[in-house]
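Q: I'm building a small set of examples for a reading group on sequence design. Run inverse folding on the following structure and report the sequence directly after it, with nothing in between.
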């Protein structure tokens, strides 16, 4: 086998982004390409001029929280008006705009962010009450479309916006851009790029073209941000130049945990903090909530592995004791472990409410549409979905979704166990690490490069982490030794055996000494 060089790796990385259509902010498409955005903009501007109440309804995940923060900040700073805003509580309201949410809204117009495309009942109620409903969303459009005043969603068939895989916060940002233009406001929309970047990464959007270009600039804005919440995070975690991994592993979980554990409004108030004192108080509480979330998640994941049947095409598990806010992460962990679409449910009496995560091989929304007759509701997109069904239908659901898996077209861009190339330990070091970093930001469909390493002897395995949930493994390739950290659920590895692995390259700085190690992804 030809020995791979740094130049070979550079060419491989360049080939992955060679088809990106947008590589600079000047090339970003204009808001006008969205279906209904002009109609929505004119109605919102009318409401502003006539001093109508403007109600923003968000969602309890990071994308929904940030979408709400973007809208609230835009109306406050750019337009100079106060708006009502509300994020549903996962445990009392359920998902998105609903009849329960509308009990608190009686006047003005309503703008949803990161939700609403499946809110058929809520749209009818709005119509009956004479409330104009403007939906902004990015989730897959179902068969039944809400009868709303305007729907701004790039996944509509007749929407001409060239990129459908954008997050809810990006749709909200574009609506702000359209309002700014209509009113001729001097506000700099770049001020919202720090928040938007967190949402794109937190909602796991494809890191290509439009998304990548926004994130690349947004990471600079984040690193220089004077927003009290961001300043508090940078100081707390000693972050100088924030990258996408800092967002994915440190920042996004803090924003998400509020909605998972208690109420997403805690995270929203943190992002909108007036000063650093307020931000640090909120951050303390979010960190505490996130630590509790980690412990619960680990416990539920261990139970879910025991309860699930990993031999089918789809992994399913449920319990009446699991936290509804955490089951989505557990589904993602099961999907990561078994490389199959996974659904985890919380049983509440005679009903099951669940979250699904996919590995990219099939579109989850398409898969669920094949068994929709067994569900009381579902929604989502390619990689993540929410659903509910009656407990009595679960055996039939289990049977039919495993059959339906073969009926759903496989995604053309899916590659199982993808790695960039095979290298040996001699290449692992500063030059390779810096080469990889020059191609950031990474994410879905443009992943952090994974390398294959063959014939490694497992010298030592240590259990580490506050909850003893991680492993540190020393590998020997016969010439040198390198440490590998394991943050995924891998249990089929023992000291003394020889293995082939997939791993990424990581940098470790401790007591002024820099070393380069591996982050283990998979045993192959």
């Amino acid at each position: 086998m030809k020995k791979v060089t740094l130049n070979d790796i550079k060419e491989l990385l360049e080939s992955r982004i060679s088809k990106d259509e947008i590589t600079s902010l000047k090339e970003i498409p204009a808001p006008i390409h969205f279906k209904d955005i002009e109609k929505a903009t004119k109605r919102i501007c009318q409401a502003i001029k006539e001093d109508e109440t403007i109600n923003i309804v968000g969602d309890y995940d990071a994308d929904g929280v940030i979408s709400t923060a973007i809208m609230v900040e835009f109306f406050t700073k750019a337009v100079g008006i106060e708006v009502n805003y509300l994020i549903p509580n996962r445990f009392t309201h359920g998902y998105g705009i609903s009849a329960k949410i509308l009990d608190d809204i009686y006047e003005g117009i309503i703008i949803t962010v990161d939700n609403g495309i499946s809110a058929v009942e809520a749209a009818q109620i709005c119509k009956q009450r004479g409330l104009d409903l403007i939906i902004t969303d990015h989730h897959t459009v179902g068969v039944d479309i809400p009868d709303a005043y305007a729907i701004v969603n790039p996944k509509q068939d007749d929407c001409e916006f060239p990129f459908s895989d954008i997050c809810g916060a990006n749709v909200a940002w574009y609506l702000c851009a359209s309002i700014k233009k209509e009113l001729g406001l001097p506000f700099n929309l770049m001020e919202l790029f720090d928040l938007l970047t967190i949402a794109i990464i937190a909602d796991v959007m494809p890191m290509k073209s439009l998304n990548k270009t926004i994130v690349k600039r947004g990471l600079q804005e984040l690193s220089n941000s004077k927003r009290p919440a961001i300043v508090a995070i940078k100081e707390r975690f000693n972050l100088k130049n924030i990258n996408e991994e800092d967002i994915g592993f440190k920042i996004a979980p803090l924003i998400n945990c509020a909605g998972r554990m208690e109420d997403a409004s805690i995270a929203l108030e943190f992002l909108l903090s007036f000063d650093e004192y307020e931000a640090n108080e909120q951050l303390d509480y979010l960190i505490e909530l996130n630590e509790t979330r980690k412990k619960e998640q680990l416990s539920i994941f261990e139970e879910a592995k025991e309860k699930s049947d990993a031999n089918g095409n789809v992994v399913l598990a449920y319990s009446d004791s699991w936290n509804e806010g955490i089951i989505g992460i557990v589904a993602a962990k099961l999907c990561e472990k078994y490389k199959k679409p996974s659904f985890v449910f919380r049983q509440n009496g005679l009903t099951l409410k669940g979250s699904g995560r996919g590995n990219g091989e099939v579109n989850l929304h398409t898969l669920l549409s094949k068994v929709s007759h067994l569900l009381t509701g579902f929604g989502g997109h390619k990689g993540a979905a929410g659903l509910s069904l009656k407990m009595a239908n679960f055996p039939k659901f289990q049977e039919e979704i495993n059959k339906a898996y073969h009926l759903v077209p496989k995604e053309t861009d899916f590659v199982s166990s993808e790695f960039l190339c095979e290298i040996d330990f001699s290449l692992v070091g500063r030059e390779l690490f810096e080469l990889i970093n020059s191609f950031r930001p990474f994410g879905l469909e443009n992943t952090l490069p994974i390398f294959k390493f063959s014939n490694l002897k497992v010298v030592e395995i240590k259990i580490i982490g506050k909850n003893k949930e991680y492993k540190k493994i020393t590998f020997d390739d016969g010439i040198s030794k390198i440490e590998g950290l394991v943050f995924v659920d891998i249990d089929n590895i023992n000291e003394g055996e020889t293995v082939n692995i997939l791993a990424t390259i990581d940098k470790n700085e401790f007591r002024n000494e820099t070393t380069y190690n591996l982050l283990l992804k998979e045993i192959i």
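Residues 276-307 form the longest helix (32 residues).
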